[in-house]
Amino acid sequence: MRSQAHDFSFTLDFAHVGAHGINVALEASPEQKKALAERFGVLSVEDFAATARITREDVDKARVKGDFHAKVEQTCGITLEPFTQDVAEEFDLTFKETAPSQSVKNEYVLDMDGDFEPMERGKMDIGETLVELLSLALDAFPKKKDAVFAYTDDDADGGEPAKSPFAALEALKAK
């Protein structure tokens, strides 16, 4: 977990999760959406919300299962025009209590229990984990639906536009 203030934090105490589990619904405030847009380097985050069911799996393990949706305004990497990307993902996470740092420095211990999110002193930061999932779901090279990359070199000799640097590859692909 990050040690600085989180852009969208929802920390839950594992002790509050009863035998039957609990349901939570989260929605980002306008201030949080603005902070998330700055963090992701996008024009805006218009919507970010999630629902989850949290259940106990063991004395030190919780399962968080649900979905989130977001609407993010980005700049097209081809046309440089703004466009909106809708993101909707399901998640199924395990939070597990992490052992106090008593291990030998520079020693790496492989956890064979599988992937899990850290729970520190019984606290799970579900909000920050969802923000990390959203960042992974965003298109790293945003492109409007119908945007097409067309390369021409107007400064080419002979007055003819130069071929794309990838024209040779296209010719090989056609064979």
Topology:
Elements: E1 11-13, E2 22-27, H1 30-40, E3 44-58, E4 61-75, E5 82-97, E6 117-119, E7 123-125, H2 126-137, H3 167-174
Parallel strand pairs: 5-6
Antiparallel strand pairs: 1-7, 2-3, 3-4, 4-5
Describe, in plain words, how this protein is organized in 3D:
The protein is an alpha+beta fold. The chain is 18% helix and 35% strand. The protein has three helices and seven strands. The protein has helices at 30-40, 126-137, 167-174, and strands at residues 11-13, 22-27, 44-58, 61-75, 82-97, 117-119, 123-125. It has a five-stranded mixed β-sheet, with helices on one face. The chain has a two-stranded antiparallel ribbon with strand order 1-7. The protein is elongated and about 70 Å long.
Descriptive tags:
five-stranded mixed sheet; alpha+beta; 18% helix; elongated; two-stranded antiparallel sheet
- The outline comes out as elongated
Order of helices and strands: EEHEEEEEHH
Structure summary, number of beta strands: 7
Percent in helix: 10-25%
Unreliable stretches covering 5 or more consecutive residues: none
pLDDT average, as an integer? 80
Beta-strand residue fraction: 25-35%
Class from secondary-structure proportions? alpha+beta
Alpha carbon gap, first and last residue: 52 Å
- What can be said about the biggest beta sheet? 5 strands, mixed
Helix count from the secondary structure assignment: 3
State the strand order across the main sheet: 2-3-4-5-6
| Rounded Rg | 23 Å
